[in-house]
């Protein structure tokens, strides 16, 4: 497919760009296959704005014929009438920025709008920008990503005794959404795994995701068991879970659905582990919002943040109505429950909801951040994201196809990853010294997950990534973020490692709206950023001084 | 009266104390005339010294013979005492109740407190009106300092010295005073150096139902206008409230009589409404149910944030009139001692970088609140936990501090002081060992001989060791006008006051310390670099060989 087909007008002069926090500027607009490029006409300090078309969530156009109907009766030629008209395109981005272009000439405006509309939501993954992004100072990596399940296993010596690395899924045949290698109890052979996989939705049989060094307890995750209405059971699945709590009196299962939802799931072939077959497992149900409800919550929140009625009551009720903060609270307290089971109560836990690709990942990630100091450094955090979200497969492409502004009908969009970042931000706010990275990293990730130069968040699973050769043909965001210059920028100058678990307060009074993200494009957040920038600069300067 | 009469049991042993974020302490409870003291007599545990005047309300209940007393403080802290023995417990409770509600000012602790520190600069003399006027004189000669109120007879709530237009003699001022509520004739509050515009404040004009007018009043405020320029009158009441005031002899400036002035009405809440808002907010903050929806609805229902927003908006409007429109402004509500002062003082923080320093802010509080006659004693008699019927209580000053905190949060580098300073002022306005916030006006303070008999809060604050704790490490003088955002989305709940005792600030404090440490270390390195550079330069000039490699 050629991008050129979609670009009828590639260049327009004399366009006015309005963006938040900056005065409007006049200049030239270019549309390319992946970008919208605006360059200022001022020669003194020419500014350029380069926007990934992928970042555009929705556009609105209004065309105005300035000469109006008076021109109809005059004998002005067609072209003159057209040149007197102009149009405005409002672009609402996935990073919540809203930009406006005033374009002279109705036809040009319509052409530009059409190109943006088409190019911003191309479905073909291999035509996306990460496959074309070739910065001069960076060659394609030999190793894509920070680690692999194999490397992770080999570094965890304490696992060797009771756990093994299984390659039963090497060709993705047992579970299309798992990576080729997973960690399972040593006593369970691959045949048992294959059978257990048939009993779990999407083949996601229970695998190890976290080993708590302090007491040897683990967090496992999976998808729901396929009990169905007639309460099927699977000996191999029971055996697998039994092996997990070998030598301990019991384990806990945290189901991220309410009891009622889990009951209903049986009608569609799903279900939950019944007490009679898994008698040493105690089950908790914690209802977490997912899918469409979460997306709608985001839409409402962003709408509330953009509300300009200047009315305090209205703002607070809209904020409440969006329920976003309730979701944050819910996620953090469920993660807290998980940590309590592992750290305080000293038992292993299995986490799942239905598919095991959204809420399960959310709370297992948060629990690891709360418990494990290694996950709180910048490498540790990115490594954690890679394991839990990239390798364990969160369907990024489906979930992040659109953000809060899109008019398109909701399909599989859901801001689960954004909710994770918000929860991490709450942790960072409550424990400003404990995390090795700063808010800036969370903001960067929140932007990149929706539109990126890098291939990290492309596709829905490892299998898809291999099929499209993502690992060979794109750059990896996580590796880029760890390059020295970037690392300086994103690290937390106040970081001091603590070995303790960081228990967040989940009182509603303790949780705040993540202004840095949701109100990022309003004036006042700017000043806070400047203050943080100041501290960061100081620390960088120190580093230089210390070295010289 | 002797305090001893009120103290039925001065000492009880074996009392257990629970307070937020501190380990439980068992020790001896002592009641003195002004303090509740609990000490375990061990070196490693902190003693509790609580001023009776800080106690807002107490509750007692019994489980068997074990009495529980819950003490709720005006600084919003809640502590629990467990006392064995019903009689002891009842005695203690009734003593606390009696001692914490003493009305007689001259029995208050500041009259008994002797400083344990060396006073470097006596705070009572730090901010005299004649000194402030010297600064004004250096900028303009259009104003004079009038002594017309030197015996407080003309306006009991004004200080002895006020700044008025130069051409107005005291006789005219006397006539104007009869036309303004409480005798509060228009006086200068702020002079904007950049364009010579001024902000004045006053009480409402006493027009009454038949539209009385006062030529002198009109002349006085017109004298502050430049030829051909219009001014703005900001009335802090909604138009219907101002209309209703006419029935009680008050009113507002009619266009016909003040053709050069444009009147703007802004609805700022006052009195009971504010007190109730505070009570609801504090109740919401202490809500223990874990529901996010409930918290947000309660926060909304308290209306506190709305009040913050309205006050800030009005202050921005006043500042805008002066700085952007180049017009002079007169601010008043009814009495001119509450919402008026919120607006005039916040506008100065927005406009004048001088008010954003530690000293400048103290001077502002002194000028626009203490000397301008905000009735601190009445307004701060009770706080959010009180069970008694509110009389004149209203958290007007606390709202002002909240607004300053909002601006400080939005401009973290533009203030020389930090949040702790604002919290300190809140605490001392409600209960203090210092005399600064005693009394309701300059006249009362003079009558009580406060400067002679009590210590000023500023004497204590303006010492290096205290200042260090209260200064903002990020401060960089900013000579610009700072325009805060007043969008509801931009305003936050002031956690440092309202959630201070509900959630531990340990981690945040550590982070703050760390930041201070980084900044200090940075300064140190900077000086080191500079001295090394100097040495290098010197070596280069001394030793020409260095230039040849």
Automatic annotation (TrEMBL), chain A:
One of its GO terms (biological process) is phosphatidylinositol dephosphorylation. Gene3D superfamilies: Pleckstrin-homology domain (PH domain)/Phosphotyrosine-binding domain (PTB). It comes from the Eukaryota. Belongs to the protein-tyrosine phosphatase family. Non-receptor class myotubularin subfamily. Transmembrane segments: none annotated. This is Myotubularin phosphatase domain-containing protein. Residues 143-518 form the Myotubularin phosphatase domain. GO terms for cellular component: cytoplasm. Coiled coil: none annotated. GO terms for molecular function: protein phosphatase binding. InterPro entries: Myotubularin, Myotubularin-like_Pase_dom, PH-like_dom_sf, Prot-tyrosine_phosphatase-like.
UniProtKB/TrEMBL annotation, chain B:
The keyword Ribosomal protein does not apply. GO terms for molecular function: protein phosphatase binding. GO terms for cellular component: cytosol; endoplasmic reticulum; perinuclear region of cytoplasm; ruffle membrane. InterPro entries: Myotubularin, Myotubularin-like_Pase_dom, PH-GRAM_MTMR6-9, PH-like_dom_sf, Prot-tyrosine_phosphatase-like. Pfam families: Myotub-related (PF06602), PH-GRAM_MTMR6-like (PF21098). It is a peripheral membrane protein. Belongs to the protein-tyrosine phosphatase family. Non-receptor class myotubularin subfamily. This is Myotubularin-related protein 9. It comes from Pundamilia nyererei.
């Amino acid at each position: 497919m050629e991008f050129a087909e979609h670009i009828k007008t590639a260049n327009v002069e004399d366009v006015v760009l309005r963006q938040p926090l900056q005065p409007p500027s006049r200049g030239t607009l270019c549309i390319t296959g992946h970008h919208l490029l605006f360059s200022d006409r001022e020669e003194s300090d020419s500014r350029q704005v380069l926007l990934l078309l992928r970042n555009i969530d929705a556009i609105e156009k209004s065309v105005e014929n300035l000469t109006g109907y008076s021109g109809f009766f005059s004998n002005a030629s067609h072209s003159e009438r057209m040149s007197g008209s102009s149009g405005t395109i409002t672009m609402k981005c996935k990073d919540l920025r809203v930009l406006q272009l005033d374009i002279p000439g109705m036809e040009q405006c319509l052409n530009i709008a059409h190109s943006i509309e088409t190019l911003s939501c191309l479905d073909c993954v291999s035509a996306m920008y990460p496959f074309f992004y070739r910065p001069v100072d960076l060659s394609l990596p030999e190793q894509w990503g920070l680690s692999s399940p194999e490397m992770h296993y080999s570094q965890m010596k304490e696992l060797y005794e009771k756990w093994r690395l299984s390659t039963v899924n090497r060709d993705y045949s047992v579970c299309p959404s798992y990576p080729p290698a997973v960690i399972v109890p040593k006593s369970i052979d691959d045949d048992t795994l294959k059978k257990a996989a048939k009993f779990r939705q999407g083949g996601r049989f229970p695998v190890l995701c976290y080993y708590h060094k302090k007491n040897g307890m683990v967090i496992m995750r999976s998808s729901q068991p396929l009990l169905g209405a007639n309460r099927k059971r699977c000996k191999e699945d029971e055996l697998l879970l039994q092996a997990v709590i070998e030598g301990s009196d019991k384990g806990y299962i945290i189901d991220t659905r309410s009891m009622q939802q889990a009951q209903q799931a049986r009608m569609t072939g799903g279900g939950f582990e019944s007490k009679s077959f898994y008698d040493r497992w105690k089950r908790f149900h914690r209802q977490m919002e997912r899918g469409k409800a979460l997306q709608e919550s985001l839409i409402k929140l962003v709408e509330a943040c953009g509300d300009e009625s200047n009315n305090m009551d209205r703002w607070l009720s809209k904020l409440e109505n969006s329920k976003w903060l309730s979701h944050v609270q819910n996620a953090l307290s469920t993660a807290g429950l998980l940590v309590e089971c592992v750290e305080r109560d000293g038992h292993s836990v299995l986490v799942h909801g239905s598919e095991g690709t959204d809420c399960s990942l959310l709370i297992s990630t948060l629990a690891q951040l709360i418990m494990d100091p290694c996950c709180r450094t910048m490498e540790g955090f990115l490594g954690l994201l890679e394991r839990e979200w990239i390798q364990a497969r969160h369907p990024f492409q489906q979930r992040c196809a659109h953000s809060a502004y899109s008019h398109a009908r909701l399909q599989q969009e859901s801001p689960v990853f954004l909710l994770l970042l918000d929860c991490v931000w709450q942790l960072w706010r409550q424990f400003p010294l404990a995390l090795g990275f700063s808010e800036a990293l969370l903001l960067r990730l929140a932007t990149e997950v929706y539109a990126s130069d890098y291939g990290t968040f492309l596709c829905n699973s490892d299998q898809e990534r291999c099929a499209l050769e993502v690992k060979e043909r794109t750059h990896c965001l996580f590796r880029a973020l760890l390059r020295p210059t970037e690392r300086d920028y994103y690290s937390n100058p106040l970081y001091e490692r603590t070995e303790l678990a960081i228990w967040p307060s989940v009182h509603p009074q303790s949780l705040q709206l993540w202004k840095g993200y949701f109100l990022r494009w309003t004036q006042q957040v700017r000043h806070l950023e400047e203050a943080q920038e100041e501290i960061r600069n100081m620390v960088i300067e120190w580093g230089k001084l210390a070295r010289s | 009266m002797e305090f001893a009469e009120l103290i039925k049991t001065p000492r009880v042993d074996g009392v257990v104390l629970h307070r937020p974020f501190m380990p439980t302490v068992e020790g001896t409870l002592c009641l003195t005339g002004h303090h509740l003291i609990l000490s375990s007599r061990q070196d490693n545990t902190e003693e509790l010294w609580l001023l009776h005047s800080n106690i807002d309300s107490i509750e007692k209940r019994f489980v068997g013979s074990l009495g529980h007393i819950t003490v709720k403080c005006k600084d919003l802290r809640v502590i629990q005492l467990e006392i064995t023995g019903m009689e002891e417990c009842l005695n203690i409770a009734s003593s606390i109740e009696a001692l914490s509600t003493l009305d007689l000012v001259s029995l208050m602790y500041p009259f008994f407190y002797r400083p344990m520190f060396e006073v470097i600069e006596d705070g009572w003399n730090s901010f005299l009106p004649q000194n402030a006027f010297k600064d004004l004189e250096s900028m303009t000669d259009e104003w004079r300092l009038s002594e017309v109120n030197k015996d407080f007879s003309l306006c009991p709530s004004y200080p002895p010295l006020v700044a008025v237009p130069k051409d107005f003699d005291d006789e005219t001022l006397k006539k104007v005073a009869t036309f303004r509520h409480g005798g509060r004739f228009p006086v200068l509050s702020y002079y904007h150096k950049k364009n010579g515009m001024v902000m004045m404040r006053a009480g409402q004009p006493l027009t009454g139902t038949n539209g009385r007018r006062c030529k002198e009043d009109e002349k006085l405020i017109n004298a502050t206008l430049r030829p051909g320029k219009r001014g703005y009158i900001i009335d802090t009441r909604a138009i219907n409230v101002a209309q209703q005031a006419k029935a009680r002899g008050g009113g507002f400036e009619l266009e016909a009589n003040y053709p050069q002035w444009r009147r703007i009405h802004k609805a700022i809440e006052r009195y009971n409404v504010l007190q109730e808002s505070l009570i609801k907010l504090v109740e919401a903050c202490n809500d223990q149910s874990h529901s996010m929806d409930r918290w947000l609805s309660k926060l909304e229902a308290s209306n506190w944030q709305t009040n913050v927003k309205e006050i800030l908006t009005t202050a921005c409007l006043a500042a805008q009139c002066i700085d952007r429109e180049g017009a002079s402004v007169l601010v008043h509500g009814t009495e001119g001692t509450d919402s008026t002062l919120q607006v005039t003082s916040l506008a100065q923080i927005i406009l004048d970088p001088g008010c954003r320093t530690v000293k400048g802010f103290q001077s502002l509080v002194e000028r626009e609140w203490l000397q301008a006659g905000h009735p601190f004693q009445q307004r701060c008699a009770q706080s959010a936990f009180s069970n008694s019927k509110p009389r004149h209580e209203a958290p007007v000053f606390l709202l002002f501090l909240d607004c300053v905190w909002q601006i400080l949060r939005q401009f973290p580098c533009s203030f020389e002081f930090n949040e702790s300073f604002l919290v300190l002022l809140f605490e001392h306005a409600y209960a203090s060992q210092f005399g600064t916030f005693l009394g309701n006006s300059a006249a009362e303070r003079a009558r009580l001989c406060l400067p002679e008999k009590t210590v000023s809060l500023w004497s204590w604050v303006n010492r290096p060791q205290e200042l260090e704790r209260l200064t903002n490490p990020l401060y960089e003088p900013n000579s610009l006008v700072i325009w805060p955002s007043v969008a509801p989305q931009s305003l936050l709940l002031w956690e440092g006051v309202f959630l201070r005792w509900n959630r531990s600030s340990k981690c945040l404090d550590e982070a703050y310390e760390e930041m201070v440490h980084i900044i200090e270390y940075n300064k140190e390195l900077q000086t080191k670099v500079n001295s090394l550079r100097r040495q290098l330069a010197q070596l280069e000039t001394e030793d020409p060989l260095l230039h040849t490699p």
